[in-house]
Amino acid sequence: MERYNVIREKNPREIVLLKGFPCIWGKCAFCDYTDDNSRDEDEMLALNSRILSRVTGEKGVLEVINSGSCFELPEGTREEIRRIARERGIRRLFFESHWLYRKRLEEMRAYMGIPVTYKIGVETFNHEFRERVLNKHAGFKRPEEVARYFDSPCIMVGIKGQTKEMIDYDIRMVKKHFRLGTVSVFTNNTTKIRQDPELVKWFVREYAWLREDPSIEVLYENTDFGVGD
C-alpha cells in the first residue's frame, strides 16, 4: 500500500496515509477502510514514523489522513507531525475528522501551532440518505452547520439509491458554503453499498467542468491522491 505522495496540481501538498486506532464510529455502511486501523500502538508508531520521515516540506503544506479521524492517531505520531512541521517549514496542515469530534477541532489547531484545514466526510447533505442508507452518524441537517466547524467537505457520488437531484444539491452547497471540497466517485468494495454505473456516467459528463475548478478535487478512483490500495 502506498502511503506517501506529492500532489502537484490543485492545492499542491505532500500527503501521507498513516495508521490510527479504530474510528470513533466505525459503522458507516459504505466503509471498509477501518481494516487499516490497529490497536498495536508500537506497530503504528513505527510505521507512521517511517512514512513521516519521507516528508520534505517542499510544498509547505502537508495532508495527513488515516482510516478515521486525526484524533485517533497515536499521541507519539501527533507529536512527530508537530515536530516535522516545525523542522521542515510546513505552513499548513490538512486533517480529517468525523462530525463527532467537532468540539475538539480548535484543540488540535492549538497543539499544532500552525493553520489546520479540516476535512469532513459529509458524503451527502441529504440527511435521510446519509443517516438511513449510509449510516454516517452525523446529525447535522443543514450545510451551514458543517461550515460552522469544518473547512472542506468530502461528498460521494454514484451510489445506488442516490439521485441526480441529490448530487446537484450537494455540489451547489459545497460551492456556496465552503472554500474547498472533494467529490469522490464511489467504488465498489467489500460492503453491501453498490455503485450506480449510469449515475457515475451522468456525473462524469455533467460535471466535467469540475476538473478545471481550483476549489474542488474530484477522485474518480479512491487512490487518485496517490495513496491507498
Description:
There is one protein chain. The chain is built from 7 helices and 8 strands. The chain has helices spanning about 40-50, 75-85, 105-110, 125-135, 145, 165-175, 195-205; strands at about 5, 15, 60-65, 90-95, 115-125, 150-155, 180-185, 215-220. Helix 1 (about 40-50) runs parallel beside helix 2. The termini are close together.
List its traits.
8-stranded mixed beta sheet; rSAM_sf; 229 residues; TIM Barrel; alpha/beta; globular; catalytic activity
In CATH, what is the homologous superfamily? Aldolase class I
In spatial order, strands of the major sheet run 1-2-3-4-5-6-7-8
Strand residues, percent: 15-25%
Give the integer mean of the pLDDT values. 97
Domain Elp3/MiaA/NifB-like radical SAM core: 13-213
GO molecular function, one term: catalytic activity
Protein name: Radical SAM protein
Organism: Wansuia hejianensis
Topology:
Elements: E1 4-7, E2 13-17, H1 41-52, E3 61-65, H2 75-87, E4 92-96, H3 105-112, E5 116-123, H4 127-133, H5 143-147, E6 152-157, H6 164-177, E7 181-185, H7 197-206, E8 216-219
Parallel strand pairs: 2-3, 3-4, 4-5, 5-6, 6-7, 7-8
Antiparallel strand pairs: 1-2
Concise structural overview:
This protein has 229 residues and is α/β, with parallel strands linked by helices. The chain has 7 helices and 8 strands, in the order ββαβαβαβααβαβαβ.
